[in-house]
Write a structure and sequence with these properties.
The chain is mainly alpha-helical. It has helices at residues 6-22, 27-46, 50-69, 73-109, 128-143, 153-161, 174-182, 189-222, 229-260, 278-284, 287-298, 307-326, 330-348, 368-389, 393-403, 417-436, 453-470. The protein is globular and about 70 Å long.
């Protein structure tokens, strides 16, 4: 069930009505309703994988209790590692088995062998990387005595599978979400209106920006051999805005939807394309995943305490794992490696904490230095996205060679030039609105609040009409494949 589908447009108001008008007097009933709704939401993708989600939930729930009740450290370690290995085992089999099998076959074929390896012919369970990380963070926190084991199965299950974040995040922590699930929730009109406003902006980013950019990005990348370097560069730019509009749009819809039910989710994006260096970019892009790797991998590896070489090693590990988390393909590993290389100068020269504030805070325009820094960071990020989008390393390399050739100066070719121009205009409008709202949690959180009611609602209706005009493709969100 897609957030940008008619089914979800029926599903959400129905659950909202039952939640606040039927189950409002009972926290237990509210949680049961949300859990049932979440399982139904997930089953709409493929009901068979619902059993995998339930099994993973049961495993971590039971492991948490057994660790809490363990009479000695060895018993506690047993349940901890059992949960870790089984969770990572499922993730490895469904997401990475074919990758390792193919890589092994290619490697030994160089020595004259022709292995006939078994390949797993099954689709990747949607959201498996996200709900696995929910469970892993809980198990690790219980093992480290950061939180107490949850004894209420309904509440723990809802933490893992709450439908707004189930298939593509944000990646929540038990320390943040579980207390909200256990606490009585009362309807807050202002919070609900704010949630609707964030949903509206998320839909705009997905339907109007991401899906329209996808039309051209997909056409150009899928037929890259037929295009000049100039057209391929435009395709890279289209994909750069596609993936941002797609993923941050999903996050906005998820966070706004959760707010309708009185629950606050972790922020996932903070205008990353206005970053002045790569370190700042990664503090603003997919923030819940970045902080997850920081807390559960980078710091346990030693973090920044082991000297410069230790920080370099740990940073490379983090980015390589992050790349591999995104997909079982060498392109994602190179994408992670590139970002690790990008961030190295700031690690070596200890400038990675230089840009902690908001760019041009309190001003309409950035300085020349800030503008050039943003353009450089954006260019490096867009270049790395080539590997993220390409089908293979050879595909990525062929695109790069054309972009850095004489054909970069040839005429840009569009399949439908008349349709592309309005999309480019929309991109400029989108960037302008995002820039004006960069000091907010999302771009239109407070934009226009000082305007008259007529102007403000005219702005909202313009967004709604643009969503309705460009709707119809209902493309899946990119991060569903991760």
């Amino acid at each position: 069930m897609l957030f940008n589908s008619l089914n979800f447009a029926i599903f959400l108001p129905l659950i909202f009505t039952l939640y606040w008008f039927v189950a409002k007097k009972s926290l237990k009933l509210q949680n049961i309703l949300l859990l049932v709704a979440s399982y139904f939401f997930y089953a709409c993708w493929d009901w068979r994988f619902l059993f995998l989600l339930v099994f993973s939930t049961l495993l971590d729930y039971y492991s948490g209790i057994k660790m809490a009740d363990a009479k000695n450290q060895n018993n506690k370690k047993f349940w901890f590692w059992l949960s870790i290995f089984i969770n990572l085992g499922f993730l490895g089999v469904f997401k990475y088995y074919n990758f390792f099998a193919a890589s092994f076959a290619n490697a030994i074929s160089n020595f004259g062998f022709s292995p006939n390896l078994w390949v797993l012919k099954v689709i990747l369970p949607v959201g498996i990387s996200f709900y696995t990380f929910h469970g892993l963070s809980y198990v690790i926190d219980v093992y480290k005595d950061r939180i107490e084991a949850e004894k209420n199965f309904i509440e723990y299950s809802l933490f893992v599978s709450f439908f707004p974040l189930l298939v593509a995040g944000p990646i929540e922590r038990a320390t943040h979400l579980l207390p909200q699930i256990k606490k009585e929730r009362n309807f807050d009109y202002s919070k609900a209106v704010d949630g609707l406003r964030q949903i509206l902006w998320g839909l705009f980013k997905k339907v109007v920006i991401a899906d329209q950019c996808a039309e051209y990005a997909n056409s150009i990348f899928n037929n890259s051999a037929d295009y000049s370097g100039s057209t391929l560069l435009v395709g890279v730019l289209f994909f750069t805005f596609q993936i941002y509009g797609d993923f941050s749009g999903y996050s906005d819809i998820a966070i706004g939807t959760a707010r309708l039910f009185g629950i606050d989710l972790l922020r996932n994006f903070a205008f990353p394309y206005f970053s002045r260096d790569i370190a700042e970019f990664w503090r603003r892009w997919h923030m819940s995943l970045s902080s997850w790797f920081r807390d559960y991998l980078y710091i346990p590896l030693g973090g920044s305490k082991g000297g410069t070489w230790g920080k370099i090693r740990n940073t490379f590990i983090i980015f390589l794992v992050s790349g591999f988390w995104h997909g079982a393909n060498w392109t994602f590993i190179i994408w992670g490696l590139l970002n690790a290389l990008y961030i190295m100068p700031s690690i070596i020269f200890k400038t990675n904490r230089n840009n902690l504030d908001i760019v041009a805070q309190g001003k309409y325009f950035p300085t020349i230095k800030e503008l050039l820094s943003m353009l450089l960071t954006f260019s490096l990020t867009a270049f790395a996205w080539i590997f993220f989008r390409a089908e293979s390393l050879s595909h990525a390399w062929s695109i790069i060679l054309k972009i850095f050739s004489k054909s970069l100066f040839e005429h840009i070719e569009y399949q439908n030039d008349d349709f592309a121009k309005p999309i480019i205009l929309l991109l400029f409008i989108f960037i302008f609105i995002e820039w004006l709202g960069r000091e907010q949690k999302y771009a239109i959180e407070k934009t226009g609040m000082k305007f008259s009611k007529v102007v403000r609602w005219g702005f909202y209706y313009a967004i709604i009409l643009s969503i309705l005009y460009f709707s119809g493709t209902n493309q899946e969100f990119i991060y569903f494949q991760f």
